[in-house]
Amino acid sequence: MIASLIRFSLIQRLMILLLAAALIVGGVWAFRTLPIDAFPDIASPQVLVIVKAPGLSPTEVESRITFPIEREMQGLPRQTVLRSTTKYALSSITIDFEDGTDIYWARQQVAERLNQVWGELPAGVEGG
Questions:
Q1: CA distances in angstroms from 102 to 12, 93, 116, listed in the order given
Q2: Environment class of 20 (CB within 10 Å of its CB; exposed 0-12, middle 13-18, buried 19+)
Q3: Where are the domains of the chain?
Q4: DSSP assignments along 60-116, one per residue
Q5: Residue 118: its pLDDT value, please?
Q6: 71 falls in which pLDDT band (50, 70, 90)?
Q7: Packing angle between helix 2-11 and helix 13-33, nearest 10 degrees?
Q8: Any idea what the Cα angle at residue 66 is, between residues 64 and 69, rounded to 5°?
Q9: What is the rounded average pLDDT for all residues in the chain?
Q10: Cβ-contact 86, 58 below 8 angstroms
Q11: Do residues 67 and 117 make contact, with C-beta atoms less than 8 angstroms apart?
């Protein structure tokens, strides 16, 4: 098998040289068009919901704001992680989506769900 391949290569020198030249040209072209980032973005798409509730304690913020929003955000399509942090007068909810998810689509999904629960939140809350 190898002997016949060597014999063919020696007989068809011009074709082998043209094939080698085509491979070299294709390799150079692929190298020049390869997109390379110095710092590639490896983070998954993420939407952050921040709600300010002036005057409420962390316990009240968690029970009256964070839990209802988390409940509404459960089951979003392509969602991987839902986590939240509650502090004095502040609720921060982070929703991670699968890699490759369009961030504008993800934001739209979160905004639609947030609009459904916004009327149930206490008066005076501010979203961001």
A1: 52, 19, 22
A2: exposed
A3: 2-33, 46-127
A4: HHIIIIIHHHHHHHTT-TTEEEEEEEEETTEEEEEEEE-TT--HHHHHHHHHHHHHH
A5: 87
A6: very high
A7: 90
A8: 100
A9: 89
A10: yes
A11: no
Q: Which two tokens stand for residue 49?
A: 């919901």
pLDDT value for 128: 62
Chain position carrying tokens 């699968």: 98
Least confident of 38-42, 77-81, 92-96: 38-42
d(CA 95, CA 93): 7
For the whole prediction, is pTM greater than 0.70? no
Enumerate the β-bridge partners of residue 95: 47, 82
Domain 46-127 has CATH 3.40.50.920: no
The model's confidence at residue 93, banded by pLDDT at 50, 70 and 90, is very high
Dihedral (Cα; 118, 119, 125, 128), 10-degree rounding: 20
Q: What is the reported pLDDT for 41?
A: 73
Torsion of CA 10, 16, 18, 21, to 10 degrees: -120
